[in-house]
Design goal:
The protein is of the alpha/beta class and 237 residues long. The chain contains 5 helices and 11 strands, in the order βαββαβαββαββββαβ. Strand 1, helix 1 and strand 2 form a beta-alpha-beta unit. The relative contact order is 0.13.
Length: 237
């Protein structure tokens, strides 16, 4: 029986009262049927990595809190040719949110995004903008900022902050793929209850975007979650 190092932070407290550890407790209970499973905190993996056949990196929380250790982990995975799931060669959130700028510049129908105040005129003119760190997650560092305050909040030279127009969306949809195969989509009809999720049956025009990204250069496949927003004004679709 192969050995699996299941990397997760069981104590991470997500916003919106979601209990992350419940998912991983269930998953590991099922994976034990086929693997010898050991659970490990993401900051403590180094001494164990070479002793396992597969490393699964799960709900580890935002790596912004241990950036140096996470980068060292990624370097060891590459240099030691260790097997991980997901792999670490995609361009999605595991490598930050730079891909949002790439998608904007490539003309994809995403919320327009930049990291440079000089490019602000390329975004829709609105009263309020959203800024957030490129390597953030779970709304860490997320702020609403008026246009005349952006200069105080964003250093374009550092290229570490995303700027987007604030759009009052109805809900966001999460598309789940395993090895590029669509599994299901979920959404929260009440955006004040983020984790009360229901199944979403996507129209083809909305389903097409995450499928195109998976078949392109943004992700390599494996287990992926893509979130789209259904806008009040469907400008981007």
């Amino acid at each position: 029986m192969e050995k699996m190092l299941f990397v997760t932070d069981l104590y991470y407290e997500a916003k919106g009262s979601r209990v992350y550890c419940e998912e991983d407790i269930y998953l590991t209970s099922q994976l034990r049927k086929d693997f010898q499973v050991v659970i490990c905190h993401p900051e403590d993996t180094e001494m164990f990595e070479k002793n396992f056949d597969l490393i699964v990196f799960r709900n580890a929380g935002p790596v912004i809190y241990y950036k140096d250790k996470y980068q060292a982990f990624r370097n060891r995975i590459r240099s030691n040719h260790l097997r991980t799931y997901n792999s670490l060669n995609g361009k999605g959130d595991m490598n930050g949110k730079e891909y949002l700028i790439e998608l904007t510049e490539a003309g994809y129908p995403v919320i327009p995004t930049t990291d440079n105040l000089d490019d602000l005129d390329n975004l829709p003119t609105v009263e309020t903008y959203i800024i957030k760190p490129k390597d953030g997650a779970d709304s860490i560092g997320f702020e609403y900022v008026s246009r005349n305050k952006l200069n105080d909040k964003v250093d374009s030279n550092k290229k570490n902050t995303l700027i987007q127009p604030f759009i009052n969306f109805e809900y966001e949809v999460s598309f789940y793929f395993i090895d590029k195969e669509f599994q299901y989509a979920l959404y929260a009809p009440n955006k004040n209850k983020r984790w009360e999720l229901k199944e979403y049956v996507p129209p083809h025009r909305i389903y097409l975007l995450p499928k195109v990204l998976l078949n392109g250069t943004i992700l390599t496949g494996e287990l992926n979650e893509w979130m789209l927003v259904e806008l009040i004004m469907e400008t981007f679709y």
